[in-house]
Records
---
Amino acid sequence: MRYDYSKITERLLGWYRENARTLPWRSDPKPYYVWISEIMLQQTRVEAVKGYFNRFIKDLPDIGALAEVEEDKLLKLWEGLGYYNRARNLKKAAVLVKEKYNGELPADYKELLELPGIGSYTAGAICSIAYGVPVPAVDGNVLRVTKRLSAGYEDITKDSVKKTLFLELLEDMPKKEAGAFNQALMELGAVVCIPNGKPLCEKCPVACYCLAYQQGVAMELPVRPVKKGRKIEEKTVLLLEYQGKVGIHKRGGKGLLAGMWEFPGLEGKLDIGSMERVLEENQIKEYTMELLGEAKHVFSHIEWHMLGYRIRIEKKSREFEEQELFSELVWAAREELEKGYALPSAFKAYKEG
């Protein structure tokens, strides 16, 4: 039997008005602010996003500024948020909005879907929160809340399940308070009907309408397939220093961390003897070497298990510059590394070492 989400509206909105967290993009829900915040919030906790959002808006206050920003500056502003294609798609979309919509995000759901990086959830959020258009915004929080409310055992990773829920919410949501309704569902999922651990059912304003609560099956929902194990890749990271500067290079334009700056590295974890041979083969003859230790970084499908070395080069030869491993290095002062180059958080342990 289809669940009627309209019956939770009054209680849910009343709870939201009393309990909604104060967030910078909520205080002034301009379309641009809603857009930027929703893209940042993908795969990232709210508390972590606040600082990034304020810094981003300060430097790029509108779509015009975003459309014109240089990629290196854009990626530096995004540094630490990960999934850097999100930032690149923001700029691509901004350029299109500037050209096609005179610098203002359209209030039309279908037109928003045509912009790079904007899917059904983000389009629904922009439409409902910024423009008051009654369109659902179905994210992970909303899927979790609604499947517990309805005691639904459908696989929430399936597009068909998301589409069915979208249509049901489209019919049931309050047409004049669509933005508040969407945000209330998201908020409930973030702070009460939580993703990890036991839901706080005693604090839920709509527990009396929750079938999973009544049946005692909340911890079984929502249903999603078991994740496959991540692939593990071992790497040796080289923090090369010469005359107070650090050597970095840019990754290729495709694949993981495409176009990002990084410390040079080698496949596998190399012991000190192996590193000495590598340095000799690459014409680094006068140096001191320090073991920086191990670090791990987890991506969505891959884990990097790293071993780092600090190598202070005393004298740099022409032969060294011509080696394939080091031929494209850019030497940056520490201050430049902090302000001018975006290094993925994968290298945080060595960047701060």
Note: The beta strands are 231-242, 245-250, 261-262, 265-267, 287-298, 302-313, 330-333.
---
Amino acid sequence: MSPRGGYAVTHEEMERDVRLIKEYGFNAARTCHYPNDSYWYRLCDKYGLLLVCEANVECHGSGQGNARRSLACRKEWRGSFVERGVNMVKTYRHHPSIYFWSLGNECWEGENLQAEYDAIKSIDESRPVQYSTDRPVPYSDILAPMYWPAARCEGYVTNAPPKPLVQCEYLHAMGNAGGSQESHWELVARNRHYQGGFIWDFADQALLGADGNLKYGGDFGDSPNDGGFCCNGIFDAFRRPHGSALEARALNLGACSLSLPNAPGATLRQSASLRARTRDRQIGDIVFKPNFYRAPTDNDRGWKMPSVCRIWKNATETGKVPDGCTSDIATQELPDGSLKVEWLFVAAEGLPDMPRAGLTFRVCGGTNTLVRWRGRGPWENYCDRRAATNVGEWQMSVAELNPNNYVIPGEQGYRTETTRLEIGTLVVEAADGSSFGFNVWPWTQQDLEHTRHVEELPEPDGTLTVNIDAAQMGVGGDDSWSAHARALPQFRVHSGRKYRLSLILHEEEP
């Protein structure tokens, strides 16, 4: 898919994509849900990219999940199943890059698939054949399910599996996602029966509009539409990597060696203005406010985070914590003029998980303001997606800090395990051996939540939003439409716990 040509992809664009796939450590691609252009196969032969070639057999809208209505069970469709599978094999079988045939996609189960499998085997016994089901079937030589979490995969491969496991789709890479990759590849590394899987998918399928901006479902007056649901690539439409692509590269190449508590419901006292001086220079008025929410990602919308976590959004916007919770901030001016800030939040039992637990404030600055930090970098990273990063000392502008290439804006530009942060001349350090996560945005959290296209984000107004977190949940992404879209339990911010920040702020000479 090309942002300029749609399905009319040039040979140059095809070659760029094959090279990019190889550069990021991948060794295989699946031509879902139909065979591809013949030039693509020649490129895969040339560059050594293994292919699953999939037949043009797709019945998702015609009985998927309904054995009585499924086309795979209806005799009058058997000839079409067989014909399409056989034609695929006869057309492409001389390409050495093809190591698997696929009977098609999301046709449920039925005898027509067995007939297609038998017909393919009769003309090519040299290659395995796959079909996606949640159980071993005679017409698939492997088990090729979709979107099984790592825990379910482990349950299968550790119990004498009759067939190897290769997920035909896993890790729905929609927007700021890719948080479950490491759990899968850790299992692949230690169990030979789990032999990998195919990420859905390669690049955002967005199109350039006449105004020069990327468009998605509904932007062309089309109805019905799937909104931004076709924008689920590890790369954006222009082939710039998302965090999920950087994570995948790291994992692929590694695998190849290659004050007093407030009364319940009371307005939080810590929203008062804080003033401090250092070296006889005023830091300025900084208003610290607790922050328990985040601008939803695509995955967050998938598991209905804005509804599930509404109590935490309300607490952030109103300054009132839920009943049973306590939030306390204390400040102390130190002898050297720096300001020590201590925040303790106790989340009551039985409340929903929090998107984050931290403080937010605004400072002067713009997109060119230099940000330096000691922590994980250089790339955007989250507690469940950081294999592509290392702890070190990094610097970049605010504009560079935020990828801003997710088709629908949301939470972005995070860095974890930080012990020192410099934003222009302002310095924030973790005290007492602790660390924190941070964002620095030229927008507000509300801007990121309510804007549907990148170009609609407001122009920077000379101030920056700074979030300093004791914790933020991971981005998740086993899928983008169910409970599996949320981060794994170990990467959530649970209620019934204490969260603490201990910070020292001062200003350095410019």
Note: The CA atoms of residues 368 and 397 lie 5 Å apart.
---
Amino acid sequence: MFKQMAVRVKTEEKEKKQPEEEKNLERLRAMTGPLTAWYEASRRMLPWRECPTAYSVWVSEIMLQQTRIEAVKPYYDRFMEALPDVAALAEVEEDRLMKLWEGLGYYNRARNLKKAAQMIVREYNGTLPSDYKELMKLPGIGSYTAGAIASIVYKEAVPAVDGNVLRVLSRIFASREDISRQQVKKSREEMLLKVLPQTDPGSFNQAVMELGETICLPNGKPLCESCPVKKLCLAFRDHLEETLPVKSPPRKRRIEERTVCILEYQDQIGLCRRPDSGLLASLYELPNVEGHLTREQLPMAFDLKKEEIIQIEALPEAKHIFSHVEWRMIGYRIVLGRELGKRLIPAKKEELKTIYPLPNAFSRYTKLIK
């Protein structure tokens, strides 16, 4: 008896859910035309959009992860000038690659680009595969990036679902599902797969992303009056646009206090290299230690003798936020009267601009190097 009741409840839930899904699919079908027309008329002119190739779309999409479009533009231009194709990326030296990526953060993205380029040269004759499933086999390429490349360049009717797309669809459907859940993303991909235009799926994918980036904004009030599909949006109809989407809060960050030093001798700056694994793996850095040290503690902490120090200058405090760690830093400039020790890499000040990749975490202090 109880088993029959459970089956009946599940059946009723399925029947109730089905019409809702069908209605959402109809909304997606109805928004395809006006949204694509709006995109063609209003889209921003971006360097990777004008003559898209698989390589340019790939590089731009990897750069755009965790980074704003306006911030990416100069890095993209510099990167493409230095490494114009897959072969150049596959052969570039690690330090050169990291220097080109300097300032974008999340450096494993760059390492995966090179790994994938080497795989493309080795297994795909130097050309990015034109199939979505084959693209997914490459290091650093997930469903979103594979969907972007396959739909924009190769016209394969596959979705490209990122945070912008999830936010737009949550508002269109007035959905209270948590968009940080992988199952929700998968569900949206499956829905889009049913309605994507077969002739130009890339334009539709980009249109939804563009809507999320320029109108259906993540923080504060979205620009609903300018939205080409507001008549189809349930969140707009029900005044829920500022409460949706639902997203679980990020994990609380661990706070770390650090003391950073600019160690100078004539025209040289002392650098260290981080371990090959972990946070900021293999990158160069300014010498730093855990904790906030006083002037008196500096010589012992940085293996210096007091008589070798000409000057100690306190520098401003700084903060840098990683995904799960927050560094709260104090800094000192220490001018030395002898050559930098063996534990340090002596870098000429001019070389900091051209050779040594230093992560953004130290930018507050590298800007103070005269």
Note: Residues 12-237 form a domain with the Endonuclease III; domain 1 fold (CATH 1.10.340.30).
---
Amino acid sequence: MNKNFYITTPIYYPSAKPHMGHAYSSIIADFFARSKKIQGSNVFFLTGTDEHGLKIQRAAEKKGMNPKDFCDEISITFRELSKTLNLTNNDFIRTTEERHFKSVQNLWNILEKKNEIYLSKYSGWYSVSDEAFYTDDEVENIDGVRKSKISSSQVEWVEEESFFFKLSKWEKPLLKFYDENPKFILPESRRNEVISFVKSGLKDLSVSRKSFSWGIKVPSNDQHVIYVWLDALTNYLSALNYPDVKDKLFKDFWPASLHLIGKDILRFHAVYWPAFLLAANIPLPKRVYGHGWILSGEEKMSKSKGNILDPIEIIKEYGLDPLRYYLIKEVSFGNDGNISQEKLEKCINSDLANNYGNLCQRVMAFIEKNLDSQIPNKIEFTNEDLAILENFNNSYQNLLDYIDDQDINSYINYILERLFAANKYFNDEEPWKKKDEIIRLNTIIYVSLELIRKITILLYPIIPASALKVLKVFEIKENEIEFKSIRNNNYLKYGKKINRMSILFKKIEKND
């Protein structure tokens, strides 16, 4: 197994405060970062803010602020969101930092030196909201307003001098790369979408603007600023101290293991970014995963529609771990999903309070009352006991594969199966009726504790704070969590005292 794992969130555009879509991408990235860390990988987890472009400039002007001060203010809310979501990110990068300027201008100089960039004139449709150019075929007229068919954002006609990147030159090399690396783009539907787009023919890409000034200057022509996506995408290199390719961070972690993004920015990451890297002779990332949107009703959340769900408000009311669990379990990864108060409350009551929380509470209360809060020390496993414990060992490779293939749905389904089996085991074995059969009673309790420990380790990347409360019962610290320990059926020390555990999840009672 490759011990180095580099994962990135989308670089967030701070033109307004964070919403549930930002929280979703970050929580999913944190799930993978924590999963790989407890597998023994050396993880580098990056998030940050993309702070250049016309959209930012206009938002700042509207507030009567200069763009840098505006970005300083808004970027803080994204940095604080990382803490609120209990993310384990190693770095938070801003594209207004000096280290990023150096990276972007170095990449530009390489592309220019290799004759991949030329000066010409751009005429076409541009979306300020998306910071993206669209062809005539991708634009439609709705009630007299031109909009992108892809994002529904308004577009405007732009004509100006611009530097162009020779994207058309990389059409065949990109298709060859996709063919040789079938899992470079996931899920499959996104891969098919990208291949179809590239096969339809690539046109050279405008990579600079003259009509606004908020951005990184083109090194050879300071009348131009570098197009926001060539600027923004380079953050993945900047955080590793590129262009110093001998730097330990760069040597250890590039190419990136996983760019986790929303499906609306797939083209930039799966077409433009690899083309820039191929042209500059920089190794390509190993995977781009385009997940679905978190919807408000049936629509994508956006400031203009006024349908933004605030993750901070939901966390205040229900807690962070319930939100993390809901987004990871209830949204089928790769597809769109929506969040509603009713579904969230049902999920908290059913899965977290009744299923997981109640199992932990019942077993711990029984031990405190009947076994002096001690892990039993005289046990004899039956074949049935061993079968339920060994299931984790037998499924171990599958679980590793689920993480490596970003198959969150199968991973969490396995946890739910094991939770059902653990609850059934405790109920069917009825330890409260075995008080005269000491060895059998001890064994039932030991097996139940081991099941709780194993399930909790699997849940740790999803609901870390709650999982740590349970692991504290066994005096297992966060830095001691090892994924491979789920294979061990005798991990818990016989005779050791266990700590008391507070209620994990309170049921939400409905007032009639």
Note: DSSP finds 18 helices and 18 strands in the chain.
